[in-house]
Design a protein that fits this description.
The complex is a heterodimer. Chain A is built from nine helices and nine strands. By secondary structure, chain A is of the alpha/beta class. Chain A has two domains: 169 residues, Rossmann fold (3-Layer(aba) Sandwich), CATH 3.40.50.300; 65 residues, no CATH class. In chain A, the strands form two sheets. Chain A has a six-stranded mixed beta sheet with strand order 5-6-7-3-8-9, with helices on both faces. In chain A, helix 3 runs parallel beside helix 5. Chain A is globular. Chain B is mostly helical. Chain B folds into two domains: 233 residues, no CATH class; 147 residues, no CATH class. Chain B is flat, with a radius of gyration of 25 Å. Chain B starts with a helix and ends in an 8-residue tail after the last helix. The mean pLDDT of chain B is 90. The chains are: A alpha/beta, B mainly alpha. At the A-B interface, helix 2 and helix 3 of A face helix 11 of B.
Chain lengths: 246, 399
């Protein structure tokens, strides 16, 4: 079952497009890695999917609807973990969770049971009444992650999740992602940490200069680049070199 | 030698441009208008009061205490920045040239306020005491000397103690300054001389300790940052200051307010906006300050029309500034993604502002009790606030 579908999406901040004719899909129970150099268009792609930028051409369907067709249904179908944590300085950790639950219509009982296990998993139980100014970068990231998983949506959009997290945090996040995948959620993850992407992603989308350069499983990519037994790092470097020569 | 002077002049120019950039908003803002009214009204009341003030009124002490207090607060303006502790380190021995310029600016930029306060007090001094004009003006000269000493002592004290227990120095200088001014106003010139000598000795002692100490960059940089933050916060009441991050306080005693927000998806923005308003110092103190001014004017100015105009102008100022502060934002916030109606934010802001403007109206009303038509000011506050919210443009649509 397709959760997210991008068809010929062209867009950017100004009239000059950053991403061009982007098409890909993500199905239920699938973890897809979005890989590319700085400036390849990963963040722009994500901004279009979460709806803070609107495509100049093409369409994005989430759960069968576009943002314009049904704003509330579209928005309640995904949760987003940005690269840099965006927290409310004036809300405590507990209030971040409460606010998220309220916004997504999660009842008190579900909020309590879900946040209890998330807080335990990310070792943040003792910081419920802290304000973000007392959190380290990693803890701020954990607050974002917990809010995202609290929602339990069909699609998770995770931008550079491993930067700033300690090894235990990374493991907890990977565990959570695995669990959600098993429950049938789709995950789109953008990252530079290629070994982790190779190990955990079901499929990879290689983005280069705003276009999809290649996509598929690791074996598909190896075939496309004619590099049997190559790692994702090898393929990635080959791709950038190949483009340099053009 | 020249390059430190150049560093200073460059920074100074940059600083002045920055201050001017924001001051133009301050002086063209609506609060400036209110201030004109307030000054006019207070001036009128002052002159009326001078007609009836008794000659036993302790004017000398009051003037001395106010000016002494202001003199004790002589925070140095060094314009030092964080990278200086690395880049200016090799120039440590030449830094006195830089600090000389800095202290000269500190003196000249702060002396005005002290003299203005004294000049405002002159009519009172003339009414209550029997000082001659020459004796009164000699007071100005003494204040100038005191200011010079206070600036240098505070700088040296901060330098020598790296900013620790400044309060002891401030109290010492405050008391000495108060006594000096009081003596000058009661013609005890021999005391004035003794007290000034004491201050000079204090200054010299500290100066000796300064000579053997490394420059406390960390402390001075912090002082600078706080000062600029203070300025930006002040300017933020009149215009939008981009690099200002408002500080946050829990204000737990207001937690009860949040209980009026029901737990439902429709109240998501209410949940957020109530907390944003109450816990962000910028927003909350803006309301506190304008409400306090409005209340004090209502309490002490017994000319109904002035109270009304002030109440009306401050209600407008509070509402429009809070509306802008809470509705306009270019930063990405997570609630932009929430599956709730876009109009929720505006409605939530309207609710919070309405609630706190009702409180402002009640405070102003209570302060005006005893005046004819006392209820008018309270009604005006509410009416103007609602009209302001309704008629002004929605800043969230600008992006």
């Amino acid at each position: 079952m397709t959760v997210l579908q991008l068809t010929d999406v062209t867009g950017g901040y100004t009239r000059k497009p950053v991403i061009k004719d982007l098409s890909f899909t993500i199905g239920a129970g699938e973890l897809v890695g979005l890989i590319g150099l700085n400036g390849a268009g990963k963040s722009t792609t994500i901004k279009h999917i979460i709806g803070t930028l609107l495509p100049q051409k093409g369409e994005i369907r989430l759960n069968g609807v576009t943002l314009n067709e049904d704003l509330n249904r579209y928005r309640s179908s995904f949760s987003y973990i940005p690269e840099t944590p965006v927290l409310y300085d004036e809300l405590t950790l507990k209030e971040h969770l409460e606010l998220t639950a309220m916004a997504y219509g999660i009842d008190q009982h579900t909020l309590e049971s879900r946040s209890e296990s998330l807080l335990k998993e990310f070792r943040m139980e003792k910081r419920l009444n802290w304000f973000p100014s007392h959190f380290s970068k990693g803890m701020r990231q954990k607050v974002m992650i917990m809010c995202a998983f609290l929602v339990n949506p069909q699609l998770y959009i995770i931008d550079e999740p491993f930067v700033g997290l300690d090894p235990l945090g990374i493991q907890s996040l990977l565990d959570q992602m695995d669990e959600k995948k098993k429950d049938g959620a789709a995950i789109l993850m953008s990252t530079h940490i290629l070994s982790t992407a190779e190990k955990h992603c079901d499929r990879i989308i290689l983005l280069h200069e705003g276009r999809v350069r290649a996509q598929g499983t690791m074996n598909d990519l190896r075939r496309a680049f004619q590099m049997p037994s190559a790692t994702l790092d090898d393929i990635y470097i080959a791709m950038t070199k190949e483009q340099d020569h053009e | 030698m020249n390059n430190l002077q150049e560093v200073w002049s460059k920074r100074f120019n940059h600083y002045i441009t920055e201050v001017q950039k924001y001051m133009q908003y301050v002086f063209t803002g609506h609060l400036a208008l209110v201030l004109v009214f307030v000054i006019g009204a207070v001036g009128y009341q002052y002159s009326e009061w001078l007609k009836v003030v008794e000659s036993s009124f302790p004017a000398e002490w009051i003037v001395a205490v106010i000016i002494g207090f202001v003199l004790a607060l002589s925070r140095p303006v060094t314009l030092l920045r964080e990278p200086d502790q690395v880049y200016l380190l090799p120039l440590e021995s030449k830094m006195p040239i830089y600090f000389k310029k800095a202290l000269s600016w500190t003196f000249w930029s702060q002396i005005g306020l002290t003299i203005v306060i004294y000049i405002v007090a002159i009519p009172l001094i003339k009414t209550v005491t029997e000082l001659s004009s020459a004796q009164i003006w000699l007071g100005v000269a003494i204040i100038v000397v005191l200011k010079y000493l206070n600036v240098h002592i505070e700088f040296n004290y901060r330098y020598a103690n790296r900013g620790d227990s400044l309060i002891i120095d401030q109290i010492t200088r405050g008391i000495l300054s108060i006594l000096t001014i009081q003596s000058a106003l009661t013609l005890g010139y021999s005391y004035v001389i003794i007290l000034i000598i004491l201050l000079v000795v204090y200054e010299r002692t500290l100066a000796k300790r300064v000579k053997v100490q490394p420059i406390p960059y960390e402390h001075f940089v912090k002082v600078e940052q706080n000062r600029m933050m203070g300025f930006y916060r002040f300017a933020n009441y009149f215009t939008d200051v981009p690099h200002l991050h408002g500080s946050i306080r829990r204000r737990g005693w207001l937690n009860f307010v949040y209980s009026i927000v029901p737990n439902s998806q429709k109240s998501t923005q209410n949940y957020l906006v109530y907390r944003t308003f109450i816990r962000t110092d910028d927003h909350f103190y803006l309301w506190v300050r304008l409400t306090a001014i409005s209340g004090l004017i209502a309490l002490f100015v017994n000319i109904p029309i002035v109270t009304w105009i002030v109440a009306l102008a401050l209600s407008f100022a509070t509402t429009i500034q809070l509306k802008y502060a809470l509705l306009s934002s270019t930063d990405f916030r997570m609630d932009r993604l929430y599956p709730v109606d876009e109009s929720q934010r505006k409605n939530a802001v309207r609710k919070v502002i309405r609630l706190f403007m009702v409180v402002q109206a009640i405070i102003v009303l209570l302060c005006s009790i005893g005046q004819p038509w006392f209820f008018v000011s309270g009604i005006l506050v509410l009416l103007i606030s609602e009209l302001t919210f309704q008629m002004t443009k929605d800043p969230s649509n600008e992006y």
